[in-house]
Each structure stands twice: as structure tokens, then as C-alpha cells.
């Protein structure tokens, strides 16, 4: 299992950072060769399912995710969500927490346990390192992007 963590500080208020990180379709805009399809009607809630389809031409895989915990930030209370990866190729979980900062802005903590079937445990260190960079860039782009739709 390749476990990694990303931490970011942002001048955005916690609720706006949360919106930008949890508008699932936007993840396809920042992840190379990936398209996101949300299978359940909005708004996001426990039970929401979405699929990240990563492909190059006809070769690809689906990363199926289900929201199993959903608690948006509220005032000074942090937000927290947990996704379970339910695909046949990529499994594991992801957690995103958004903490309002005492002075201004917010802090984002993104933790993930990424498992790729048939990839030996010997590769976990490399997978974790690559995933940390890739998901870190995605988080930076999601946070920096224009306002999320309401």
C-alpha cells in the first residue's frame, strides 16, 4: 500500500477551498488523461459515487470512488470527507480535511492509501512518491482555479 499525505495552506476561506476540492468533475481538468463522471445526483453526500476514467486511446481503467464520510466545514469546525476506492484496478481510500485558519484562509490535508492491483509491494515507495507529486499538483490547481460552481 502506498500511503502519502499532502498539506497545503491557502488564503481561501475553508468553505471555498472545500467547494473547489469537492466539485468532482473539476478533478478531470487537473488530472492528465482523466475524465470524471458522477453517477449519483447532486449534491454530494454519503453514498455519492463517481468514476475517474484514465485512458490513453483504448487503453485505460476506471477508478470508482464512493463518499463514505461527508462533513463540510462549518464556521470554525473543519470539514472532512473520506472516499473508498472501489475499482477493480485501483483500490484504497482518500481523506481530505479542510481546517479554517485562526487568522485567515485555511489549511488542506489530503491523505491517501493508493493500491494498484498486481503491483508488488516492492513498488509502494515509488508509487507513493509519484502519487504525492501528481496529487499535490492536482490539489494546487484545484485550489488556485476560479470559483467553484455553487
TrEMBL record:
It comes from the Bacteria. It comes from Streptomyces atriruber. This is SRPBCC family protein.
Amino acid at each position: 500500500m502506498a500511503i502519502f499525505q499532502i498539506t497545503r495552506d491557502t488564503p481561501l476561506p475553508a468553505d471555498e477551498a472545500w467547494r473547489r476540492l469537492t466539485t468532482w468533475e473539476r478533478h478531470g481538468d487537473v488530472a492528465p488523461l482523466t475524465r470524471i463522471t458522477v453517477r449519483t445526483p447532486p449534491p454530494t453526500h454519503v453514498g455519492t459515487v463517481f468514476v475517474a476514467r484514465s485512458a490513453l486511446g483504448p487503453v485505460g481503467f476506471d477508478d470508482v470512488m464512493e463518499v463514505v464520510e461527508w462533513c463540510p466545514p462549518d464556521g470554525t469546525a473543519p470539514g472532512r470527507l473520506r472516499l473508498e476506492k472501489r475499482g477493480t484496478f485501483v483500490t484504497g481510500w482518500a481523506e481530505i480535511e479542510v481546517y479554517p485558519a485562526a487568522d485567515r484562509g485555511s489549511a488542506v490535508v489530503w491523505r491517501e492509501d493508493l493500491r494498484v492491483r498486481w503491483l508488488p509491494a516492492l513498488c509502494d515507495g515509488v508509487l507513493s512518491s509519484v502519487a504525492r507529486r501528481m496529487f499535490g499538483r492536482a490539489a494546487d490547481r484545484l485550489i488556485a482555479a476560479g470559483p467553484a460552481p455553487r
